Amino acid sequence: MGPRSTWYPRYVLALLTGIVTLSFIDRQLIVAASPLIKSEFSISDTQLGLLKGVAFALSYGLLVLPVARLADKYSRTGVISISLGIWSLVTALSGFASSFTQLLLLRFGLGVGEAGCSPPAHSMLSTLFAAEKRPLVLSIYSLGMPLGNMLAFLVGGLLISQSGWRAAFVIFGIIGLVLLIVFRLTVREPRQAHTPHSTQALGIPSLPVSVMILFHSRDYRRLCLGAGFAVFSTFGLLAWILDLFVRTHSQSLEEVSIRFALIYGLGGALGMLASAAVITILMDKHQHANLIVPGIALLISAPLAASALWIPDPTAAYICLALSIMFIHCYFGPTYALAQTLAPPELRSQASAIVVLVQVFIGAGLGPLIVGSISDVLNPLIGAGDALRVAVSVLPVSLLIAGFMFLGIARIRVEEEKS
After folding, report:
1. What torsion do the CA atoms of 46, 49, 50, 54 make, to the nearest 10 degrees?
2. CA separation for the pair 44, 132 (Å, rounded)
3. How distant, in Å, are the alpha carbons of 13, 20, 281, 406 from that of 136?
4. Which CA distances in Å does 344 have to 222, 224, 349, 353?
5. Can you give the pTM of this predicted structure?
6. Where are the domains of the chain?
7. In the prediction, which pLDDT does 192 show?
8. pLDDT digits (tens, 9 = 90+) for 330-379
9. What separation, in Å, do the N-terminal and C-terminal C-alpha atoms of the chain show?
10. To which CATH superfamily is domain 8-190+206-418 assigned?
């Protein structure tokens, strides 16, 4: 089974997509179980926001760039293997947490493990597939996010309702250890390609030099910032929309979990694949379609998300949410593909890591925490349901900012090419 086999890159893509799907399941199980955890440990929305966001984001954000550097310098498959083993073990141990503090520490551990997943995977796939295929390939890989979210709500939600939230964590942790064995036995480290401008002959630059090389590109800097605003809303909605619908629409946790599973899984997957297909078709005539398409999609998603929060009819709210999620997910694949294209081959893991770092700190870290904190402040004044609704309403504004930033990058690139 050699890396040059025609089927082998597709196999690696499928397996890595399965692994990243599991990473999002393990990451979002806390969201599916949050009403039960809040009740069992008697914690506030701010503490719940810490579990959902900051605890994971802090450790993930601190390690994602150094770990990506290790992957660029040594072995991408080795880094992915160690990371998968760590986060699977931590997920299983989360099922035995007996206090908020223990669960908080385990969420830190989850971030430590998952820091070594996507950046090395992006680099491996960019080595195995040609540049013109990367938007589609990385969009397929990015399907792990909506699929993971779907399975966390659907399968995880059903496990939680039938066997309790602790059993769900243990089961998914064991699944990760099985995937680790399959990955180690079947995947080899691909050889890195050389380019005329590659610095590989000089060795991997130091971390500060690597960051300077990447941020020397104005397009890369703008891309990171735009992605940060987009993911602030993405993860803020993901962390709190289930709690909001349970509180405001008087529906059971199991009922809401199943509907959210389909919305996030099918809607997110459709958005990613549709945007990749549209960009692929348009790129021959519009070379900045990889910025224009996600920019327009994010602008469309903002009013739909706001409507989902405030429409009193549950059915209409679910429809608006589904459409919003579909358009929101249009930016993921193009973002990572452009980051890989802008980076030298030997810095690709680190290029993805920085994009992920910005997204994790701004999105996964601040999004859930800010929403939870605003909700706690407003709760005594207007009640739990309306307080959370108002708090979540800050997120569509960030979608608008992100959409205009993507379109602004495209406009600036066009102007620079004309000058």
Report:
1. -130
2. 48
3. 11, 16, 11, 19
4. 18, 17, 10, 14
5. 0.71
6. 8-190+206-418
7. 59
8. 887 788 777 877 777 777 777 777 887 777 777 666 777 777 788 888 88
9. 50
10. MFS general substrate transporter like domains (1.20.1250.20)
